[in-house]
Amino acid sequence: MTSNPDILDDAPPSQLRYWGHILGWSVLLTFALMGLIVPAIAAAHLASGQGSSDDWWMIGIGLPLAAILAVPLKRWMPDFTQGEPDTPRGRKMRSVVGMLVVLGVLVAAPLIIADSATGQSLTLFGNGPVPALAAGAMIAIWGLAVPVMMVISRRTSDEVARGAAEFGALVGFQTFGWLAPIWWMGWRGGLLPEPQVMILFAITMIVATLANQWKRVHG
Amino acid sequence: MNNRLKVLRAMRNWSQAELATRLDVSRQAVNAIETGKHDPSLPLAFRIARLFEMPIEEIFDDQ
Fold first, then answer.
1. Is the Cα dihedral A217, B3, B6, B9 positive or negative?
2. Which of these ranges, A58-72, A112-126, A145-159, B29-43, has the smallest mean pLDDT?
3. How many domains, chain B?
4. pLDDT of A2 strictly over 50
5. What is the ipTM of this complex?
6. In a domain, A98, yes or no
7. Residue B20: how many other CB atoms lie within 10 Å
8. Do B10 and A85 make contact, defined as CB atoms within 8 angstroms?
9. Cα dist from B60 to A219, B8, B11, B34, B39, whole Å
10. Which residues of A fall below an 8 Å CB-CB distance to B?
């Protein structure tokens, strides 16, 4: 029998803790990058002679913010392994998670840059107008990166991960199929506000992700 | 479906991560199979049987 008493007690990896860690770190990374990008744009304004005192404020707040956030970013950088062995499949899956973090930052970046350039507060999930250049950049990044990541993820998942993803996708689709007609008919009947595609998208994705994680834990 | 994966793994002194590497699956998959949360596909069941050099029915039991 085994000489290592821990071998029989391998605990299942905590999905909640892992994804919470990835999410929290991504938020920190986004703020740190904003702390670098916004001052760079402000410096360009000042250099062109069109700057104002607001640009000095952006530099004065942004750079120290980025410097302060560098410490927790380095300290709490996820290892992305989740206790998984270092195999070619595992490395590919971790690269997908890494790409997901980069994608989130890249999609948000055009809006942040446009926000800084126009002096308006543009919200990612709002319905307000967005400059065409920023919208085009976000569409291009999302439109090209997401299908590639979907294919890589699908081809490198093992059968447990694929089963959980399929379960999550089904529950997400059923949620959308149930909710969208209710909201649409409620709007036509004057009972509900006009349906918002991004709210439906967000609800569908959240439900699908929760179902995926539930399936991984409970089988 | 019941299985003897955990016992067979322990007899070889392998961790879940080591077994996952040998089967080319994630550690999470090994954990799910051991705890009965996931029944492996036929191709994976054959890979497990070959790895432990045992017939499938001696590892998995549907009773």
1. negative
2. A112-126
3. 1
4. no
5. 0.88
6. yes
7. 24
8. no
9. 17, 12, 17, 10, 9
10. 1-4, 6-8, 10, 12-13, 82-85, 87, 89-90, 93, 158-161, 163, 216, 218-219
pLDDT in tens, A50-99: 878 888 988 999 999 999 999 999 998 887 676 777 888 888 888 887 88
Q: CA–CA separation, A216 vs B38, rounded Å?
A: 9
Retrieve residue A170's tokens.
């089904």
Q: Contact A169/A208 with Cβ under 8 angstroms? A: yes
If you average pLDDT over residues A173-177, what whole number do you get? 97
Domain ranges, residue A24: 13-78
Give the Cα separation of A188 and A102 in Å (integer): 40
CATH of the domain at B30: 1.10.260.40
In this structure, the dihedral spanned by the alpha carbons of residues A111, A113, A115 and A117, taken in order and rounded to 10 degrees, is -140
For residues A212 and B16, give the distance between their C-alpha atoms in angstroms, rounded to a whole number: 22
Tokens found for residue A104: 């989130």
Partnered with residue B61 across adjacent β-strands are: B2
Residue carrying structure tokens 């905590």: A14
